[in-house]
Design a protein that fits this description.
By secondary structure, the protein is mainly alpha-helical. It contains 14 helices and two strands, in the order ααααααβααααβαααα. About 45% of the residues are buried.
Length: about 325
């Protein structure tokens, strides 16, 4: 379940990097651009929840902080989007560290409930402070991130690729191994002298900062900070993407995010049924493909390939 799939990810990135050479459709570019942002959100969720086993239901809290902070600074002070995104990234990461320090000693469902409460808090706070956040209308008229849709496409894709490589390096490092040990058996990890809370706080800070960075990218790519970025629905969608692709692998959420987002676009004409369909997908995945569809496909392919190699090495009868 937790094996990585670098070759499949490499193939995906090559296809996406070359896609504009085969189609000039702005609509397709826009879909892939936003799907790349969702992929960063999903991978950033996975580096903490997938690798430590402590589920967060409030990822939109950090997405919203990064996105709305970048939007407010840009709108009110006219500061360049690239700088405001950096500020949003820093503040989101800092809040992640603070929240982690205060809550990550908790076990069981308590941490999950706190993250959900944070998400509900930020969504209500945005309505209370509507003069700054625009309330349900959000903040329109933001500066563009780049000068053309094609540049936006590659900016979002490069962010996705860089995030994937960075998180993959972490998972293959000592830090990643310790996170896995925490997930598998927290008591044993602590008995070995590992400061498990410290490692979880660092992972949570990384997760929060990356979510905030992608949130900043999103609002400037859309030129609008939407209230939807603050809602629990976004956190739920990210969770569905990760479970569908396969949590604890980075690559699984990467593919899951692209797949679910593209499916979401295809179902746009049936908007009243979309959440029902996604709920059924989640239900089916948990019951029949608990490892996630892409991780399961990879494992089945490797099993068939190994059986083929064994048969090939056997002497003829």
């Amino acid at each position: 379940m937790y094996e990585k799939c670098p070759f499949s990810a490499l193939f995906l990135f090559i296809v996406l990097l070359s896609l504009p050479f085969f189609t000039g459709s702005y609509y397709i570019w826009q879909i892939i651009t936003i799907a790349s942002i969702y992929s960063v959100w999903a991978m950033s969720w996975d580096i903490f929840s997938g690798y430590t086993g402590q589920i967060s239901f409030g990822h939109a809290f950090f997405i919203g902080v990064g996105g709305f902070l970048s939007a407010i600074i840009n709108k009110r002070f006219g500061i360049d989007p690239w700088f405001t995104i950096l500020m949003g990234t820093f503040v989101s990461g800092f809040l992640g560290l603070i929240v982690g320090i205060l809550t990550l000693r908790l076990r069981g469902p308590y941490f999950a409930m706190i993250t959900l409460a944070l998400n509900l808090f930020i969504s209500q706070l945005a309505l209370i402070l509507w003069k700054f956040t625009g309330g349900e209308e959000g903040i329109p008229g933001l500066d563009v991130l780049t000068e053309s849709p094609l540049n936006d496409y590659y900016a979002a894709l490069i962010l996705c690729i860089a995030s994937y490589l960075f998180l993959t390096l972490i998972t293959r490092s000592k830090h990643g191994t310790i996170l896995i040990s925490i997930r598998e058996n927290l008591d044993v990890a602590e008995a070995c002298g590992i400061n498990t809370t410290l490692y979880k706080v660092i992972a949570f800070g990384i997760s929060a900062s990356m979510a905030g960075a992608a949130g900043g990218f999103h609002v400037h790519l859309q030129m609008h900070a939407s209230y939807d970025l603050l809602q629990v629905m976004l956190s739920s969608m990210i969770l569905i993407m990760c479970l569908f692709g396969g949590i604890g692998s980075i690559t699984g959420p990467l593919f899951g995010a692209y797949s679910i987002f593209l499916l979401n676009e295809m179902l746009r004409e049936f908007s009243e049924y979309r959440m029902l369909i996604f709920t059924l997908i989640l239900f089916f995945t948990i019951l029949y493909i608990p490892n996630g569809i892409f991780i399961t496909l990879k494992q089945n392919f490797e099993r068939v390939w190994e059986e083929y190699k064994v048969k090939k090495l056997q002497p003829p009868a």
